[in-house]
Amino acid sequence: MEIFKPLHFSLSERYHKYLVISAINDYASGRLLDIGCGNKPFLKYTAHRVSEHIGLDHPASPHGNSAVDVTGFADNLPFESDSFNTVLLTQVIEHLEDPGNVLKEIARVLKKDGCVIIAWPFLYPLHEVPRDFYRYTKYGMKYLAEAASLEIKHLKAVSGFWITWFSFLSIYLFGKSKHLYVIFYPFLLILKGFCLLLEKIDRNQESKDKWTWNYCAVLKKP
Predict the structure, then answer these.
(1) What does each C-alpha distance from 10 to 29, 38, 151, 163 come to in angstroms?
(2) Domain limits at 84?
């Protein structure tokens, strides 16, 4: 069954991780704090950019603590002010009860001109329940950032309608039955290619903002 990996995994790699990696290459430097680090999926991409990669996660993380350097909570970071040049917060903020306070804590531990690389879901099913609290538009994230005295340097929708629609279909079928997914796999593979083509044709940014499954942004401490 391992050979039939759900096709939305590859879309996640292409349309989410690519933007985060690009932001790391453009903005990461110095000491980096990876909040909600899990198994540190971006560690190999930060190695050439930062002097230190510190992973923080809470004790009950569903991803385990084997890669965690510091156990703690995002709304009460166990670090001194002005300690980090970069903070990584990917697919985490929707799981936090008080995201506004978390961004203020991040601003506190960031050095001047430090950056937060953040990614979060918009149109996406419930996950890691019951700790799945919020979905943010780009306007919601701008509001949270400004309230924490952080500037938006970069903000981009990850996908448009076609990729989001295909991802929902793939997630739904995979969740229903892995055996059924294997049966439909050839059809889904063709459909994925068709949706990728339609996604490439649709260059309307307003459409992407309405239908994206994820956002990626870079926030800066002035």
Answers:
(1) 28, 19, 31, 11
(2) 9-160+207-220
